[in-house]
Amino acid sequence: MWAQEIEVRGRVTDEEGRLPAVNILVKNTNRGTVTDLEGSYSLKLNRGDVLIFSAIGYKPKELVVKDTILNVKIRAEFIRCFPDIFTTHAGTFIDRNITGAWSPLKENNFNHGNIHHPYQLLRGRVPGLTISNPGGDPLGTFDVQQRGLHTLLGTNEPLLVVNGLPGASLFSVDVQDIESITVLRDAATASQYGTRGANGVILIETKKKSYNKKLKIGYSGYVSIENASKTPDVLSPDEFRRLVNDANSRFYNPAADLGASTDWTEAITRTGLSQAHNLNFSGGFKQTDYRLSLNYRDVNGVARHSGFDQSNALLHLSQHLFNNKLQLQLNSGITHRNITKIDSDVFYQAAIYNPTAPIRTDTSRFGGFYQRDIFDYYNPVALLEQISNTGDQTIYTNNLNARWNLFKNVTAKVQYGWQQEAQTQQYRLDTDRFQPRYLENYDTKYNSQNQLFTTSLRYYFYKNDHDFDLTGGYQYQTWTNDFRQQTLADSTLADSKTKTELAAFFGNLQYNFRNWLFASAHWRHEGSTRFGDNRKWGNFYGFGTGVNVTELVNLSFSQYLKLRISYGVSGNLPPDGVYADKILRPSAWYLNNGVFKPTVDYFINENQSLQWEARREWNWGFDFEFFNGLLRGSVDWYQQQNQGLVWQYFVPSPPNLANIHYENSVDLSNRGAEFTLNATLLRQSDFSWESGLNYAKNHLRLDAISPSLREDVDGFAPSVYLGTPGGGGFAPYQAQEGAPLGQLYGFIFERSENGEAIYKDVNSDGRFCGCPDDQADLGNAYPRFTLGWSHQLRWKALELNVFLRGVFGHKIVNAHKRLYTLWQGGDRNVHRSALENNFNNILGKGQLADVQVENGSFATLENLVLSYAVPSKKFSRLKVYAAAQNLFTLSNYSGVDPEVRLSNRVGEFRNVLAPGFDARMAYLPARTFTLGVQAEW
Questions:
Q1: How far is CA 43 from CA 93, 147, 892, in A?
Q2: Does residue 725 have a cis bond before it (omega within 30 degrees)?
Q3: Across residues 703-711, what is the average pLDDT?
Q4: At a CB cut-off of 8 Å and minimum separation 6, what does 510 contact?
Q5: Residue 546: closest CA among 535, 562, 559
Q6: Inter-residue contact 883 to 853 (CB < 8 Å)
Q7: What are the beta bridge partners of residue 760?
Q8: Could you tell me what percent of the chain has a pLDDT over 70?
């Protein structure tokens, strides 16, 4: 009877739940298996066999087989619990096997407080991932770069993969439902995503279920208030009144004193009140698991009329059939968001508007608001009250996965994902508003659809100390976009529809020998309809190897030391609107039989050689754990080339059909270093103190510019728009081959004479020419390095989390200081620093001086959370907490926000070749305080 073979099934767990990738070996044999993602396993055994359960970082455990069900709980050997894992379409990756650079974050690593965007969860937490969103706009868009710049015209934002769906909307899930975020940092690991991996990849997994079948109900919620943490340092009403009435002052202008006292920044701001609530239900029965989450949040910024409210529902279902051979998973969600935006000029108008002007007047013909007939000079409160910019957004998501264990060690997987997004916008101006701004009432509708189909076959083999994991498959994805905008006054209609298809064949191999030698290889053959006929398909690949030294050499101080090296080629699609085919657009209208009809002409030239942008990168690194896990971390160095970046330039027409030409003609390079260090500084029965540090440094260089339809050039001058006065066509850059990008150039201020500014004769020719020959290097807009420093202190049921973030060495062009420090006459307000200047002239259009460029280095208390785990018999978990964000910032920058600027923004357009500009319309930064509760029962 004891020799009878039976099928034994079970699950391996630790104190935190499931344990994937645990080695299970039949004692004194070579037979065994490895647990899956859920910690589950199955083996055909004999009663009386002895199983050995082992994993790096855990104490091995031996158990005798007596029945068909054998669940096992193992204990951590030292502090860090292995393994961390992530899953892509090409396979499941376990940290001990990974040969590239990646960063796993879970809920206890996230930033907390009034968090409504996934990027807020991990800002400052991942080395090499720079996330910038100056100001506290609740609808603000983020600039993101991972290991530097990888494209010139498109977004540098990493590819977002939500529950396995690439390119999913960040707003398709609520942040309270996110369980883990994994950042793939090197090109070899990101090469699995082919033409979309060059910017890096961020994998987001939502909370899916509990690990027992009992019904569990959870609630989390918070209320939050926020106020502007800093405002422009302009003259107060009394200071302004005193100066314009002083006959001995260069500010003398009695007509500018209008008799009122108005703090315009105070008039347009408020204490923003926000709230968020999450109610979830999870559990299961027999072979079914489920989790249903319902979310509501209402977010209000410090500027009046800015914010959104959002409702979200997310359902996860998991079904096991045919004795666990078939596993089905469904993730289905819906998000609806109502949006209220404000005019981007509100903040700078509040900074320059006459502080002695009233907000309203009975005699006004502008809807009761005080207003003057002057270009680019508007009552800030009127901008808020007389412009309505509202809209809504609805996102539907369905993601179905099926995994079939065909036979021993062979698994087939099929995935179908579908996401549809619909947006509307309504822009309205009051008819009695003074509007020399050429703005019209309009309606906008945008619809998009993202569909994905993936099928793969996995073969896993474990024998004689050799561990092979091989996956191959096919993927197809398509996007459709439909945009329509109608101007109401004349019914002018702008309409565009696009469809893009992508197909790929992929393969992935992972190898492990006795847990000391690791190797991996990825390959992807991918094609896109965005590319030209001559470059429709491309190959992307990555490979790496690693050695766990501690398995070969007995190191008394180290429990884990892995050396690794990887090389990869990942790609980038050209940005939206860039296609290999020639593009037509509406042009002039002509009269035909009394009816006006539109004509079309060529807008973009055909280029059938247009192809993906390639990132080629070597990465060297090592991971370590010393002193029984008290000290652990990783170090990485990388060298990358970004080749064939798409660049737009102008060509003569004729002979070309159009004067715009897109071509793969620019090469960049990045090199840098990153490290993370985590330490347990103190560990006692009632008190512990853990600290973590991450550091990143990157150097960006322009290597080559080689347009085929123009003569060879060795540089170009990117221009930006700063606004009036004198801020149009602004070009303080000289992007040259062999030189760093982001370098600022301008004149050096020496002194003032007779009310005139005197600048340095840089080229020493005896005169200041006011031309490029007298310009000097004013610094670089990209940071020299970034830091994140966390502390976690626990005393009994109390826990304090402190996180500081720092960005150092970047220069910022202070647009407010440039445009509004010097007195321009009239009745516009100025910054207080104008009182220190004894000259009135301003540099001409397109020129910059060193006094307008400042060091933006800063350190900020990004996140502070104090929580208390309330003892309760009714609740399995009950925690209350208080959080603060942006509590203080240490910086010498005189503007309102020293945050690094990775691009110059004009509306939705971002110029990544012109970083470092603190635009005049920037939203004010906010300091936030939050009270929240988390409960489960």
A1: 22, 44, 64
A2: yes
A3: 84
A4: 91, 93, 97, 467, 468, 469, 470, 518, 519, 520
A5: 562
A6: no
A7: none
A8: 91
CA–CA gap between residue 60 and residue 22 (Å, rounded): 10
Cβ-proximal residues to 76 (8 Å cutoff; 6+ apart), any chain: 14, 15, 57, 58, 59
Q: Quote the CA–CA distance of 412 and 523 in Å, as a whole number.
A: 19
Task: Write the pLDDT tens digit of every residue in 469-489.
Answer: 899 999 999 999 999 988 887
- Cα separation, 144 vs 122, in Å, equals 12
CA distance linking residue 885 with residue 929, whole number of Å: 7
Among 3.40.50.300, 1.10.10.10, 2.60.40.1120, 2.60.40.10, what is the CATH number of 5-73? 2.60.40.1120
Residues 223-239: b if buried by 16+ CB within 10 A, e if exposed: bbbbebbbbbebbebeb
More confident residue, 844 or 663: 663
Containing 265, the helix (H) or strand (E) segment is helix 264-268
Distance, C-alpha 783 to centroid of its chain: 17
Q: How far apart are CA 691 and CA 792, in angstroms?
A: 6
Q: What are phi and psi of 318, to 5 degrees?
A: -135, 130
Give pLDDT, residue 843. Answer: 58
Q: CA geometry: angle at 171 spanning 166 and 172, to 5°?
A: 60
- What b/e sequence results for 683-694 when a residue is b if at least 16 CB atoms lie within 10 Å of its CB, and e otherwise? eeeeebbbbbbb
Q: List residues bridging with 412 in a β-sheet.
A: 404, 457
Distance of alpha carbon 767 from alpha carbon 698, whole angstroms:
38
Closest CA to 614 of 675, 539, 724: 539
Distance in Å from the first CA to the final CA of the chain = 45
At the top level of CATH, the class of 216-412+421-936 is: mainly beta
| CB neighbours of residue 635 within 10 Å | 17
**Residue 666 scores a pLDDT above 60:** yes
Alpha-carbon gap, residue 668 to 153, rounded angstroms: 13
Nearest residue to 259 (alpha-carbon basis) of 359, 365, 349: 359
**Is residue 815 very low, low, confident or very high in pLDDT (cuts 50, 70, 90)?**
confident
The tokens of 688 are what? 């512990």
Q: Which of 489, 560, 483, 476 is nearest to 518 (CA)?
A: 560
Q: Which helix (H) or strand (E) holds 348?
A: helix 346-352
Neighbours of 259 (CB within 10 A): 9
**Cα separation, 166 vs 886, whole angstroms:** 32
Pairing of strands 631-650, 660-683: antiparallel
Residue 225: C-alpha distances to residues 119, 279, 653 (Å): 20, 22, 57
How many residues make up the chain in this entry?
937
Backbone angles phi, psi at 550, to 5 degrees: -70, -15
What tokens were used for 834? Answer: 């104008």
Q: What pairs with residue 888 in β-bridges? A: none
Q: What is the pLDDT of residues 552-600, one digit of tens each?
A: 888 888 888 999 999 999 999 877 777 777 777 666 666 677 776 667 7
Q: Where do the domains of the chain lie?
A: 5-73, 216-412+421-936
| pTM as predicted | 0.89
Q: Are strands 917-918 and 811-814 parallel, antiparallel or unpaired?
A: parallel
pLDDT at 199 over 90: yes
SS3 759: strand
The residues that bridge with 493 in the sheet, in sequence order, are 486
Q: Give the chain's radius of gyration (CA, Å).
A: 30
CA-wise closest residue to 125 among 860, 862, 792, 694: 694
Give the torsion sign (CA, 305, 900, 905, 846): positive
3-state helix vs strand vs coil in the chain, percent to 5: 10, 55, 40
481, amino acid identity: N
